[in-house]
Amino acid sequence: MKFLSHSKSLSLQEDAKPFSMPGDWQNKIKATGQLFEKIKAIGSDSTPGDYEKRKLSIFNQLNFFQLLAGLIVPIAGSLSSRHFPLAAWIVACLPALISVAVLILNQRGRYDLARIIYFIFYPLVTGIVYLWGINMGVELSFILFGILSVFFIQELDQMLFALGLSMVSYFVLAVLCKDYKYQLALANVWFYFFNQLFALGFIFYGLFLIKKENTGYQHSILQQKEEIIQNGLLLQQQTEELTRLNAFKSRLFSIIAHDLKSPIYALRNLFRNMQAYDLPAEEIKGMVPEVVTELTYTTSLMENLLQWARSQMQTDAVKPQPIDISGLMTEVTRLLRLQADAKKIRVSLDVDHTLVAFADKDMVNLILRNLLSNAIKYTPEKGAIEVGARRANGHTEIYVRDTGMGIPAEALQKIQLNNFYTTKGTAGESGTGLGLMLCKEFIARNDGNLYIDSTPGKGSTFTFTLPIAD
Asked: Which residues touch 108 (CB under 8 Å, ≥6 apart)?
């Protein structure tokens, strides 16, 4: 039993040995692949441009395989029973030596010299080998030289010379010359057959590499072109956005420089007169309403400016929440009640008390205050304003309708194009147009839309939509 168990363990160990072979083969294949990649990358560090690197990679591959093919003749000669002079051996080894020289020159960055040696000396040396009386069976390589010269040589005269040299050499050596002292086909038919197949396969392999690299290069060019177009469009959009923002900022600085001076000067003049002339209370009381009007406008302007600055710095992120529309409308109308009462304007509410929207409450508050403030500004004394809300088409619709002066068609077009538009109110109130632009921006950021329906002399209706709370 011990013997059997021992024999079983031996058989298991022997069976286990072959499983290590695949790993060895994988390592060998990996090492071979790494070596081939190094051969393809010879001299690529100092090659300018992606296209030149692709061409150099093909050139290195072809020379490496031609180096291997050039070793076939010396190996076949060493296995032959015939004896050749030293000069014949030197000539037979020259094609392989030229491939080595080309790879070395590529490594040193001498690309032009490497191509001259390849396309001039390679056919010449191969022709000398044939003229020496040695038929290596590589006459098909001349066709490859001609094809590759069209791809690798940029100068037309040099390309035509190399192409003509290859074609003439092929015709003379393969068609005219027949008497050879040594023929690889007679010395070793298998080597000759392999050499012909190798040369034929080499031609198709060279054409395949050229086709592959050209296709890859064209694809990369198209991709770069697409990226350039996309970057150009992005740059154009950024330029337009910067132009718009610069115009917007210039307008704001103009507003700040011009419109903020009025209430400050009004206050200064009020206190200066009180100090200098010891004005009675009745006279001071008569000056206060004008100052209050100026300060009311300034307060609204400063609030809009702060909201705009926050939105431009992107610190004012949208924070949607359920909003009681009825409660919000009541709050806003209460804040602007004094402004409406000063012009004896009747403000009425028409809203479902159960209506709940889903949006940023602070933004909706600002939207509603600006729309109602504008309605009061452009509605004459004893006019009427209706603020209401309803469900429609799966949204919450909020509207502010007035019986004011209306908006001309040209002004409506400016508003739709996000241009500043403002005019004096019915009581001479000032405006900047900033509030309406903020309304449009905040409505869009809350997934809503703004609609304006206005008839000059009859009034306007501003309607905006908001999502309904689930």
From this structure: 43
Residue 233: pLDDT over 80: yes
Specify the 3-state DSSP secondary structure of 447.
coil
For every residue of 242-306, DSSP letters joined together read HHHHHHHHHHHHHHHHHHTHHHHHHHHHHHHHHHHH---HHHHHHHHHHHHHHHHHHHHHHHHHH
Give residue 217's pLDDT.
67
Kind and range of the H or E run holding 351: strand 346-351
Query: Is the Cβ–Cβ distance between 448 and 439 less than 8 Å?
Result: no
Residue type, 343: K
CATH fourth-level superfamily of 319-470:
Histidine kinase-like ATPase, C-terminal domain (3.30.565.10)
Structural domain boundaries in the chain: 25-225, 319-470
Out of 169-183, 222-236, 341-355, 416-430, least confident range: 416-430
Residue 455 backbone phi and psi in degrees, to 5? -130, 120
Q: In angstroms, what is the C-alpha Rg of the chain?
A: 45
Cα of 108 vs its chain's centroid, Å = 37
Q: Please, which residues bridge with residue 387 across strands?
A: 349, 400
Q: Which amino acid is at 192?
A: Y
Question: Residue 278: left (phi > 0), alpha (psi -120 to 50), or beta?
Answer: left
Q: Which residues contact 121 (CB under 8 A, 6 or more apart)?
A: 98
Q: Which phi and psi angles does 358 have, rounded to 5°?
A: -120, 100
Residue corresponding to tokens 């000396």: 121
Residue 139's contacts (CB-CB under 8 Å, 6 or more residues apart) are 130, 170, 173, 174, 199
In sequence order, what are the residues at sequence separation of 6 or more whose Cβ sits closer than 8 angstroms to the Cβ of residue 153? 115, 119, 159, 162
Q: Are 269 and 283 within 8 A, CB to CB? A: no
Q: What is the DSSP letter of 181?
A: S
| Contact predicate 437/420, CB 8 Å | yes
Cβ-in-10-Å burial (0-12, 13-18, 19+) of 95 comes to: buried
pTM: 0.46
Per-residue pLDDT tens for 66-120? 787 777 667 766 766 666 555 556 656 777 788 888 888 888 888 878 888 878 7
d(CA 233, CA 239): 10
